[in-house]
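Homework help board

Subject: predicted structure for assignment chain

Our instructor gave us this sequence and asked us to write out the predicted structure in token form, then describe one feature. I got the tokens but I'm not sure how to describe them. Can anyone check?
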Amino acid sequence: MKFLFDSDTWQEIYGSIRKNKIRTMITIIGVLWGIFLLVVLLGAARGIDNNFKKIFGDFATNSVFVWTQATDTPFKGFQKGRMFKLKEKDIAALRVEYSDEIKLIAPRNQTNNLVVHEFKSGNFKVSGDYPVLDQIQKKNLIYGRFINENDILSTAKVCVISEDMYKQLFDKKEKAVGEYIKINSINYKVIGVYGRSNGIDLDGDTAFIPFSTYKKVYNTANNIDWMVITANEGVDIVQMENDIKLTLKSLHKVHPEDERAFGSFNLGTQIAKFTGFLTGMQFLTWFVGIATLIAGVFAIGNILLITVKERTKEIGIRRALGATPIEIRQQVVLESVFLTTIAGMLGIVFGGSVLYLLDMFFGQGEDATLINPTVNIPIILIAFATLVILGTLIGMIPAYMATIIKPIEALREE
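My token output:
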């Protein structure tokens, strides 16, 4: 290791680099570009992934939405185009038949209504729901609470409103929880106010009231508009969606091959597509980054081979004066490692700077597209160490070529 601290060694490396400034700069840029690309692309992929997690963070991602439509096939005396509704008994039947697959199930009813508080009003969605909805899509409660089982059992006239509804219906700094608002000319006590979701929100500005209260006020009997079903961990969500629709067809006397009678939306399938895209993007990032790194390292090897060729006479003189092959080899390898180290450090610094700018311009606020675009330090260290190792290995080639030069032949070189 003594040669590392030998000033003559570093002076020779400096002299070689100074003699070939443009060539050295191009070589460094080639290696720098590889690790720069790797850092930036990995950071951007992480930012997109974080944004994806934010969008779906409050929602049970393995969920299926099911509703009814007009039938497309005549069956058991019923004509094509029959309209029908989901029933509460469907929920009970699904719970029994798919007890191992279904984790949560929430029947839902919804309509639009005029909501009034004193002299202020607005048209908003009104939704009849069970407390389980808060487990499927967590509500960001600012004040108060969500609907509970006691509200369902007592058919309570209570509601949970959004922050935007509060701003439209109440004066600034006025307390909403404990106050009353009118929905369809009926008084409801406000028990909670929720903020805008950080992620996916299918309800928007909605007043949530107990399912039992909605049923009584709007006279829906046992009908439900749609249901949300969340599967247990490890369940094939696509298969469960098909099985549930087949069971519902049987319950409602719908032809088994009728594809229009039930509409559904499988959130898990859509998420899987996006997750696959992210995985592919990360693979491409690693492939491009590593390929560019290797190309840059080979460029260093080529430059050093040319340098060795140009310095044939000089190497011959050094050999004639007593320099050993090991000393010659160490200098060439050290020059290779030095160049790759400098290039790698610059690439990491520039890549980190670009990620900082991306976070500043695209990672702030509610509409951020790249959230916290960063790369784990261990990954950076592994990439940097790989770069240095490759630089060392590639430096062995010109180092070997330098040591096989015979002093007498080198001195004759013109």
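Reply (TA_rk): Your tokens look well-formed. For the description, you could write something like this. Residues 63-266 form one domain. That's the kind of observation they're looking for.
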